[in-house]
Design a protein that fits this description.
The complex is a heterodimer.
Chain A: E1 4-9, E2 12-17, H1 18-35, H2 39-59, E3 66-67, H3 69-79, H4 82-88, H5 96-100, H6 118-126, H7 130-143, H8 147-158, H9 165-172, H10 178-204, H11 207-261, H12 283-313, H13 319-346, E4 350-360, E5 367-372, E6 382-387, E7 390-395, E8 398-403, E9 406-411, E10 417-427, H14 430-438, E11 444-447, E12 450-453, E13 457-458, E14 469-476, E15 481-484, H15 503-506, E16 510-514, E17 517-520
Parallel strand pairs in A: 2-3, 5-12, 5-15, 9-14
Antiparallel strand pairs in A: 1-2, 4-10, 6-7, 7-8, 8-13, 10-14, 11-12, 15-16, 16-17
Helix pairs in contact in A: 1-2, 1-3, 1-10, 6-7, 7-8, 11-12, 12-13
Chain B: H1 3-23, E1 28-29, H2 30-39, H3 49-58, E2 62-67, E3 75-80, H4 82-109
Antiparallel strand pairs in B: 1-3, 2-3
The chains are: A alpha+beta, B alpha+beta.
C-alpha cells in the first residue's frame, strides 16, 4: 500500500506516490534555487514544469495511472540537474548572483540553539556570529531587568523553526548554492537512513530490553539536562563575576588615569585633584604600570568571563590559542610591572646631600631663641596624604609638596652659634640625588637672637618625591643656652640632654650647653 | 583543462546558433526543438534548453505564442523575430568563416 498525493503541475492534475513526490519536490526546489527567484528564473521553472507535465501526460495515457518514483527519476535524468546544466554551459554560467539575492527568511535555528534557537536564527539572518548576539541578548536582558527575556520568548513563539532543508537554506539566504542544497539533502537522507536503521534494530530487541533501554535513556537524558542546567548556572555566575570584576578594573584604571592627569574626578569637582603620583614616579610609568596592573588582574577575570560564556553558550573556539595568548599576555604584563617597579626602585638607590653651614653672628647673645614660624599652610585644604612626614597641599590649584624638617641641637666646637642645614635626597645616581637635594627649598629667619624656622621645607614645583630630608643642626657653644619655642615640638627630633628629657618636655624652656651636655636652666625669676 | 569543459564551451556557442537555426522558417514548441537538438547530440539534458530559450527571448531574438494542445497543457511556440533573423544571418556568416578558418589551418598543416 502506498500513499498518493494529487498534485498540479502546470495546470494538469496528477496522482503521485509519496516517495516520488518527495523526490520531485526536492528536484524542483533544487531547480528554483539554481535559476533564482527573479522573473527569468520563474519563467524557466514554468517552462520546465510544463515540460514535466507534458512528459507525465505522455506516459500516463491511462488517466488513472499514478506517477511513480521511477518516472520521476526518469524526468530528472531527461531534464538534468543543475550540475548537468552547469557542465553543459561550461560551468561559467553559474547564476550565483541570482542565488545570492535569494530572500533570507528568519527562522529559529535548531542546529545551533541554546534555548529556542532564536539567536542562532537571528545570527544566520544578519550573517553574524551567534555568540555575539547571545551576549548582546544576555546584556540586554540584564540591563532591562528581564524585559529582554520577554522579547526572546515572543520571538521564540513567533518565529518558525527551520525544519526542512529549504527552510534551513532560506535561513542563511546566500549560502543556498546548489551544491550546498545537494549536500544538506544528502546529509538529511543519511540522517534519516541512520535513524531508520536504528529504529529497525531496536525493533528486533525484545520488549523488555527496549523498555530497559528506554528507562536508561530517560535517566540518561534527565541527568544530561540537569548537568547542563548546573553548567549553565556556573557559567552565568562566572560571567557575572567576570563582568563586574572587569567593570571595576576598567573604572579604577580610568580613575587612576584621571588621578594622574589631574582631572577633577575623584573627590568633588571643586577640588582640583593633584597629580599626586606624578610627584613620585614618572608620568609615563604611572600609565604603564596601571595598564600592567589592569592586565594582571583583568586577564584572569576575562578568562572567567570567557569560560562562563563557553559554559552557557557551548560554542566552539580555539581554546588552546586563546588560553595561551591570555597566559602570555598575563606573563608579559607581570614582567612589565616588575621592570617598571625595578626602574622606580632605581630612582631611590643613590643618596646625596648638600650641607650649608652658617655662623650666627650674635656675639652678645647668651641665649638663642629658637621658634617655629607661622604655619601658613594650615588653613589650606589638606589632603589625607602623609608619607614620611610629607604633606600634600593644594595652594591656588597647585599642589605643593611639604616635608617636615628635623632639628637637633649639639655642642659647638667653636665659640659661636652655628646653624647647619643638611638637605638630602635619593636619586637614580649621586648627581641626580644631589640635584633633587638642591631643589629643596628651606628658609629660616634670623632676628637678633631669634631664629624663626619655617615649619616645612618645600619641594620644587616639578619636584619628585625622593625621600628628601632636611636636617637642621644647631651648634651651641659651651656656656651658652637656647630657648625652644612651644611650637618647636613639631620639628625637634631627639635632642640629647643630660636629663634625658623627652622632646615634648623640652619646649618652652631654656637649655644651657654645659661640658656634659644640654642642661635645663632653672628659670631665675 | 578538462576536455569536457572545452567541449562544453564550444557547444555552448554553437547551441544558440543551432536553436535559431532550428527555429528558422517555422515556429516550434520546446519539445520539437529538444528533439532536433537531441538528434544532433547537441544537448544531453533538456533542462539546458529552457534557460537558453528564455535568454534569447529576453534578448529580443525570439518571441512565442501560446497554442492549445490536444493532449496536455498549452504549448509555447517559439519563432524568430526580425532581429533574430538578422542575428542568425550574422551567426551563419561567422560560422562559415570559422569553418573556413579551421579548414585552412588544417590544410596548411597537412
Amino acid at each position: 500500500m502506498k500513499k498518493t498525493f494529487t498534485i498540479n503541475i502546470s495546470g494538469t492534475v496528477f496522482h503521485i506516490e509519496e516517495d516520488a513526490y518527495d523526490v520531485l519536490q526536492k528536484y524542483l526546489i533544487n531547480l528554483k534555487n539554481h535559476f533564482g527567484n527573479n522573473e527569468e528564473g520563474k519563467e524557466i521553472i514554468a517552462d520546465i514544469e510544463a515540460r514535466i507535465a507534458e512528459i507525465f501526460s505522455e506516459k500516463s495515457v491511462d488517466k488513472k495511472m499514478v506517477v511513480s518514483i521511477d518516472m520521476v527519476n526518469e524526468i530528472v535524468e531527461v531534464m538534468g540537474t543543475p550540475e548537468d546544466f552547469a557542465e553543459e554551459e561550461g560551468e561559467e554560467e553559474q547564476p550565483s548572483s541570482a542565488e545570492s539575492k535569494r530572500k533570507r527568511r528568519l527562522y529559529r535555528d535548531p542546529d545551533h540553539r541554546v534555548l529556542g534557537g532564536v539567536c542562532g536564527g537571528l545570527s544566520a539572518y544578519f550573517n553574524m556570529d551567534p555568540v555575539i548576539l547571545r551576549i548582546i541578548f544576555a546584556v540586554v536582558i540584564l540591563a532591562t531587568s528581564g524585559a529582554g527575556l520577554l522579547a526572546y520568548l515572543i520571538l521564540w513563539i513567533a518565529v518558525p523553526k527551520a525544519i526542512n532543508t529549504t527552510q534551513r537554506l532560506e535561513m542563511r539566504g546566500q549560502e543556498a548554492t546548489v551544491k550546498n542544497i545537494e549536500k544538506s539533502i544528502k546529509e538529511e537522507v543519511a540522517e534519516v537512513k541512520e535513524s531508520y536503521k536504528k529504529f529497525k534494530e531496536s525493533d528486533t530487541y525484545s520488549k523488555g530490553k527496549k523498555s530497559m533501554a528506554g528507562a536508561g535513556d530517560v535517566v540518561y537524558s534527565g541527568t544530561k539536562v540537569l548537568l547542563r542546567v548546573i553548567v549553565i548556572i556556573i557559567g552565568v555566575v562566572l560571567i557575572i563575576s567576570g563582568f563586574f570584576g572587569l567593570l571595576g578594573i576598567i573604572s579604577s584604571v580610568a580613575i587612576g588615569q584621571s588621578f594622574v592627569d589631574g582631572w577633577p574626578l575623584i573627590w568633588s569637582p571643586e577640588i582640583h585633584v593633584p597629580g599626586i603620583f606624578n610627584h613620585f614616579v614618572e608620568p609615563g610609568t604611572v600609565t604603564f604600570g596601571l595598564i600592567s596592573i589592569g592586565l594582571l588582574t583583568g586577564l584572569p577575570l576575562l578568562a572567567l568571563l570567557f569560560i562562563g560564556t563557553k559554559l552557557v553558550f557551548n560554542y566552539k573556539t580555539n581554546n588552546a590559542a586563546i588560553g595561551l595568548s591570555m597566559v602570555a599576555l598575563w606573563l608579559i604584563s607581570l614582567v612589565a610591572l616588575i621592570v617598571v617597579s625595578a626602574g622606580q626602585v632605581g630612582n631611590y638607590k643613590s643618596q646625596s646631600s648638600i650641607t650649608d653651614n652658617s655662623t650666627i653672628s650674635c656675639d652678645s647673645c647668651q641665649t638663642l631663641y629658637l621658634k617655629l614660624g607661622e604655619d601658613k599652610y594650615e588653613d589650606y585644604a589638606e589632603l589625607d596624604f602623609d608619607i614620611n612626614d610629607f604633606k600634600m597641599m593644594v595652594v591656588d590649584g597647585d599642589e605643593v609638596m611639604l616635608g617636615q624638617p628635623r632639628l637637633d641641637v649639639v655642642k659647638s666646637g667653636s665659640n659661636n652659634f652655628t646653624i647647619n642645614i643638611k638637605k638630602a635626597s635619593r636619586g637614580s645616581s649621586r648627581e641626580n640625588a644631589k640635584e633633587s637635594a638642591e631643589d629643596i627649598i628651606y628658609n629660616y629667619e634670623i632676628n637678633d637672637s631669634t631664629l624663626l624656622f619655617d615649619p616645612y621645607f618645600i619641594l620644587d614645583d616639578e619636584g619628585k618625591w625622593r625621600d628628601q630630608d632636611v636636617d637642621i643642626t644647631i651648634k651651641v657653644p659651651e656656656g651658652k643656652a637656647i630657648y625652644l619655642g612651644e611650637k618647636m615640638v613639631k620639628i625637634i627630633h631627639d635632642i640629647e640632654n643630660v636629663s634625658n628629657t623627652w622632646d615634648s618636655d623640652m619646649v618652652g624652656k631654656i637649655w644651657e650647653m654645659k661640658p656634659e651636655g644640654l642642661t635645663l636652666k632653672e628659670v631665675e625669676n | 583543462m578538462k576536455i569536457e569543459n572545452a567541449k562544453a564551451q564550444m557547444r555552448k556557442g554553437v547551441l544558440e546558433y543551432c536553436i535559431l537555426l532550428v527555429l528558422d522558417g517555422k515556429p516550434l514548441y520546446a519539445s520539437n526543438i529538444i528533439q532536433a537538438l537531441k538528434e544532433a547530440k547537441l544537448i544531453v539534458v533538456e533542462g539546458t534548453l529552457y534557460p537558453l530559450l528564455t535568454r534569447l527571448k529576453n534578448a529580443g531574438l525570439l518571441t512565442y505564442r501560446w497554442e492549445e494542445s490536444t493532449q496536455g497543457p498549452p504549448r509555447k511556440y517559439y519563432e524568430l523575430t526580425e532581429s533574430g533573423r538578422s542575428f542568425l544571418g550574422e551567426l551563419e556568416r561567422s560560422w562559415g568563416e570559422l569553418v573556413e578558418a579551421v579548414g585552412t589551418v588544417k590544410n596548411n598543416k597537412a
